[in-house]
């Protein structure tokens, strides 16, 4: 009951545009899976208005610096911007990590910019779920754009990148065989490539490698990912990057791809939630029931095969859930 009341206050606060309420909500998401589910259920009808941009790439490529620049430009266009910096390798959460905090200081008094870092702590449902919920909070808060900064090229980063409407892959020259580190998955999700640190002497080589990689990509694309070169620390090329994001957004909106992308994402989300519920609420509790132990004994004795036992487990579990609810 206390949780329900608290989350109604949070919901009211978020819908009224309170950054404090949004910050509290994200802490809740990091620490309390049950409560955050209740929160998202209440906020959900008020979401769907923010446009989500993902920036992903190796550590040190300049993502945070770029996000800061983009936020500045978007604010100049009269847009509000919510930023979530996701770092699965960072033990820090509950606020901006120090570097980000200093860099993003110029936005801190701006009511139309919200910044938050999320680390690896907690998140029983996974970092992608937590990020998705935080994204929903900033959407409900009324942010026109939500920018997700994610580190690296691993599976959990791919899942986070899948939350975005437009995905920007940030690379930098001189990472050895930097382009070789672009995994197949990243090629598929990139809508825009950025080669940041274009002030580096290896720029030409990295750009040529990337163009070659794109040329060899056998898939037919309705949208060819542009390659934007930036020097984030001087804000060079950052207007071009913002224009590329807007152009991709227009492309998705005009060709209907945006609705389709979002529908597919929600489809995956519903299936994931159902699968988690099935495991946590049907299968695991069913293994505690005496019928399960009898069935396993029957499998051991070769009176029942494992497939039939699994079907039985599902049936009994479903019956129990139906009786309980
Ligand atoms: N020379 C150069 N340094 C940059 C550029 N962009 C960012 N940096 C620096 O690279 C370092 C890492 O940047 P950061 O934005 O934290 O990278 P992130 O880990 O991808 O978020 C910082 O010291 C930045 O000041 C750039 O275009 N040129
Ligand atoms: Mg960063």
How would you describe what is shown here?
With about 325 residues, the protein is an alpha/beta fold. The protein folds into 2 domains: about 50-255, P-loop containing nucleotide triphosphate hydrolases (Rossmann fold, 3-Layer(aba) Sandwich), CATH 3.40.50.300; about 270-325, no CATH class. The protein is about 55% helix and about 10% strand. The protein is built from 13 helices and 7 strands. The chain has helices at about 1-15, 20-30, 35-45, 65-75, 100-105, 125-140, 155-160, 185-190, 205-215, 240-255, 255-285, 290-300, 305-325, and strands at about 50-55, 80-85, 115-120, 145-150, 165-170, 190-195, 225-230. The protein has a 7-stranded parallel sheet, sandwiched between helices. Helix 5 (about 100-105) links the parallel strand 2 (about 80-85) and strand 3 (about 115-120). Helix 2 crosses helix 3 (about 35-45) and helix 4 crosses helix 10 (about 240-255). The longest helix is centred in the C-terminal third of the chain and has 30 residues, at about 255-285. It is globular, with a radius of gyration of 23 Å. The structure holds guanosine-5'-diphosphate (GDP) and magnesium ion. Magnesium ion (MG) binds near residues 63, 64 and 85. The site of guanosine-5'-diphosphate has 14 residues, from helix 4.
Which descriptors would you attach to this protein?
Rossmann fold, 13 helices, binds guanosine-5'-diphosphate, alpha/beta, 7 strands, 2 domains, globular, binds magnesium ion, 325 residues
């Amino acid at each position: 009951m206390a949780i329900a009341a608290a989350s109604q206050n949070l919901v009211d606060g978020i819908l009224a545009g309170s950054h404090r309420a949004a910050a509290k909500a994200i802490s809740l998401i990091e620490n309390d899976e049950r409560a955050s589910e209740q929160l998202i259920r209440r906020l959900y009808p008020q979401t769907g208005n923010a446009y989500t941009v993902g920036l992903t790439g190796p550590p040190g490529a300049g993502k945070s610096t770029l996000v800061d620049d983009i936020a500045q430009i978007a604010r100049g266009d009269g847009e509000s911007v919510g930023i979530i910096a996701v770092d699965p390798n960072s033990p820090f959460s509950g606020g901006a990590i120090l570097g980000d905090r200093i860099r993003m200081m110029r936005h801190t008094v701006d009511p139309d910019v919200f910044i938050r870092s999320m680390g690896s702590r907690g998140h029983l449902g996974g970092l992608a779920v937590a990020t998705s919920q935080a994204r929903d909070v900033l959407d409900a808060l009324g942010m026109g754009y939500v920018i997700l900064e994610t580190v690296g090229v691993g599976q959990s980063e791919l899942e986070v990148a899948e939350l975005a409407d437009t995905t920007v892959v940030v690379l930098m020259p001189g990472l050895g065989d930097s382009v070789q580190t672009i995994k197949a998955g990243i090629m598929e999700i990139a809508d825009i490539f950025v080669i940041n640190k274009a002030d580096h002497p290896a720029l030409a080589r990295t750009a040529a490698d990337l163009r070659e990689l794109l040329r060899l990509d056998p898939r037919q694309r309705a949208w060819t990912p542009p390659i934007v070169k930036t020097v984030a620390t001087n804000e060079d090329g950052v207007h071009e990057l913002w224009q590329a994001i807007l152009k991709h957004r227009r492309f998705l909106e005009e060709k209907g791809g945006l609705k389709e992308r979002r529908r597919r994402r929600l489809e995956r989300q519903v299936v994931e939630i159902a699968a988690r519920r099935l495991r946590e609420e049907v299968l695991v509790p069913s293994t505690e029931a005496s019928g399960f132990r009898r069935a396993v004994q029957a499998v051991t004795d070769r009176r029942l095969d494992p497939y039939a036992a699994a079907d039985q487990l599902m049936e009994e579990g479903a019956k129990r859930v139906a009786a309980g609810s």
